[in-house]
Every structure is written in structure tokens, then in C-alpha cells.
Amino acid sequence: MKAIAAAKVKTDKVDSDTLALLLRADLIPAAHMIALAQRGPRDLMRTRLRLVEKSVSARNSIDRLLEKFNAPDVTDLDELYQLHAGCHVAQIQLLAEQIHTLERALYPYLIPDVDVQRLLWIPGLDKVNAFTIYTEIDGIARFPSAGQFFSYCRLVPGADNSGGRTRHRPGSKAGNRYLKLAFSHAGIRAVQYNPEIRAFFKAKARKKPIRIARTLVALELARIVYEVLTKQEDFNGRFKGRPRSGHAGQAHPPN
Fold this sequence. Notes:
By secondary structure, this protein is mainly alpha-helical. Helix content is 62%, strand content 5%. A two-stranded antiparallel ribbon has the order 1-2. A two-stranded antiparallel sheet has the order 3-4.
């Protein structure tokens, strides 16, 4: 595929010849096709994310408007600018209703699922993150190892090997960006509400940049998800081998 994208002469004939050569050498990997039953919920979750992004954009527009005139509230703006801000407020309200409608529509499809219930018990995973992770994974069995799962979630850097040296490439675009977002958000929530995870984050942040420390938390949550879904067992309440405060002895995920 890279040979086609990087070619100086790019025509249908050149592309078809290159594809034929790659197929002959068995160099084109098989692509995963999502299960039909999962396609609808997954696409609905992606639509929800786009609506959230639009809502955040509208909120940012209001903040920039207030900053422009150094006004503490929309009511302190001139009449025309109040109308300007009012359009964004109306968009936010409409988007909030649409987001709520999509979430409620997904509950009957996902809440009864055993794997979703197990995910809900993992620290940092609320319903939205659990739904996203479950639908985007589409069966943990397609990942033979935890490392492949981490790579698909964009939680490990890429690597360039040359002359016996390895150079890591952070911010790789290979993999699933929705899983990256879900685990990143889960990591932030886990640090906020779990003392043991917060202590792990602070220990890493003393030695590494904040973004790396956050990624390491997300990576540990992804490791828990992989183990829970692979073994088909409930989360045991332990993080890095230690029981979390107030969770010792609990064995069943919440409904």
C-alpha cells in the first residue's frame, strides 16, 4: 500500500500492477470486517462522538466571544453578539438532546451484554467508554497477544529499526483512534477517583512527561481490559497486583 501511495507515477494501471505483485507475494494482510450485529452500535457511538465534538466547538466559540470583549457572561455582550452567542447556546442544547437520545437507544443493545458488565467494573470506565471499547474491539480473540491489542489501541509508540538501532515514533496514526480516546479518557477518570492509580500516575510523572504518564495509566487499563475479556472473568479489583481501596473482596460487576 505504501508503494502505491509513494509512487511518483500514479495511474490506475500502475496501481493495479503494484497490487497484483503484492498479492502474488502475499504481502497484503487480511482486513478485519466487523460483525454485522456490532456495526450499528459502533457507528452510533462514533456518531455520538462527532456530536460531542460539535458541542465542545460551540462552547469554545462562546468562550472566545467572552474573551474577545472581556465579558463575564453572555448577557454582558452587545445585542448583536448576544444573538451570536445564542446561536451557539441553541446548538449546545440541541446536541445535548441528540446525544442523550443516542445513548438511551444503545442501552438495550449493550447493557445486558456480559462483557459490557465486566468492563463497567474496571476503574475509569463509565458507560460511554465501556460501550466504545466493546464495540470497537469487536471480539478480543482477534488479538493473539496483549502487545498487538496495545498497538491497535495506539498506546505504544511505533518503531523504526535501522543499522541495529531502534527509534521510537510517538503519536503513530496506525490503529484505532476511538480506542485511544476511550482509554485516554478512562485514564484521566481513574487517576481522579482511585488513590492507587493516582499514586502510580504521580510516580511516573516525576520521571517522565505528563502525557507519557497518562499514557502509561491508559496502557495499564488496557491490560486489565485484555485480561478480563480474554479470560472471561470479572475484574478482581487489583491494580498492578495490589487491591484498590474499598474494592477488596468484591467479585461481581455493577448493573
